[in-house]
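Bench notes, bay 3.
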Amino acid sequence: MDVLLKVLTVGGAAYAALLAIVFVLQGHLIYFPDAGREILHTPQDAGLAYEAVWLTTEDAVRIEAWYVPAPAARGVVLLAHGNAGNISHRLDYAIMFHHLGYSLLLFEYRGYGRSEGKPSEEGTYADARAAWRYLVAQRGVPPERIVLVGESLGGAVVARLAAAERPGALVLASSFVSVPELAAELYPWLPARWLARYRYDALEALGRVSSPVLIAHSRQDDIVPFRHGERLFAAAREPKVFLELAGGHNDGFLFTREAWREALGCFLAQHLPAGAMNSVPR
């Protein structure tokens, strides 16, 4: 009995220590800025003209962004990428949206790439707001001509932005319901919902979005289960479209496949104003 009590005591202490470590260091399980700090390519390498701009957030952090114009653009896509890599890893999106007739603003989260600061939940929201302000205030893009696109973690970022603003459309690709929900599924041996200091509650934000919504998810997603996409779609208001993808979570740039690119193009053509934008000021 004494041996069993000792084993239980030591085991309990070890588990408590593990919980403390996870609680303190969970940011390292969410953000992976060091997975790609180096800028490997620019849109110019893909034959696209672009403008590198530096945005200052409301809390005085400077973040990098790339504006990739399309001729006679119907609108502008504001893309929030996932939790790893940087904007130089998302050039396929620039090519795709260029072919669809949309300009693109790729913005970098704080602490990623060459941007200043350290990533945080409120920080990523502020970064997205700075990108929105740049398009609306500095480039004069009408909100109804802006398409918010979020990839994985970026889905929660732009869902919150769309709930506060009124973009022309919102697209969530391979996104999760919330961090606590996803963590509880990935780490069932931990009280993840209780430990979570990060929310990224896309489900709650989506319920407040009045813009047309497209949810895209794959049944083969090996990180964010397909049911997350289904729950997000159920929470979205009409008009809404569900686009079923194929392949794993990190197969990369799933939208660039022809069938899905056509479906996305049809969705945007249906819900954004017809015709090209007027020239806008710099």
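Next record in the batch:
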Amino acid sequence: MTETILIIDDEQDVLDFLSHILGYTYKIFTAPEAGKAQQLLDEEIIHLIISDVMMPGMNGFELCQLIKSNIAYSHIPIILLTSKNTHQAHIEGLQVGADAYIQKPFSVDLLLSQIQNLLKNRIKIKDHFASDPFAHIQVPVRSKKDELFLQQLDEYINAHMKEPNIDFDALAEHLFMSRATFYRKITALMSLSPKEFVDMTKLKKAAALMSENRLTLPEIIKLTGFSSEAGFSRSFEAQYKMSPEAYYASLQEGE
């Protein structure tokens, strides 16, 4: 998936310039003010936001605070751009939850480095979570709201672990979200579809049960909601690059 960036600035020249330099690598959305930005956030999967601070109506500080306080968007890293060259302005940016704060006129190389680092860290965290059977679900969180979101998500999946097909409408409702908002949140936060995330969580549970060595493999497969041993084995090997049998062997070697 090509990563998406939302650029918010009331100066068209700035929108055009940033769209030009970033458009070769990322999918770009632009907004001249906060209202349009909120509309795009409700319609699109956004991986990172670049926002000017000084704008008519809601300024960048207020918009950043709004985004970081809304569970639907709180996971999105935000870079604030400002001509305010004061320590107080910098502190205010950090207080409202900005992930980076860059003064105008800014270095393009500095901006590109900040974008790359913020997006790279998200991918690294996701890859670690995906490849390690014991990496905790809370690894990727950026805020208390995201921590609570993932905790509630984990609790729901575990309560419905035996079900072969989890009802995503009911899951979204449990999290007080529409299905579309839930899909955007999971996809942007974890780079996984809801189904992929649920399947990964089930495989992690299966790996944990296997490490305890108290249940047979058929019992574990039933407890984690897989319909067949062959299907479970295919999913397990695709996720962890080894068969369940090889995983059992690796556990015994580690004793």
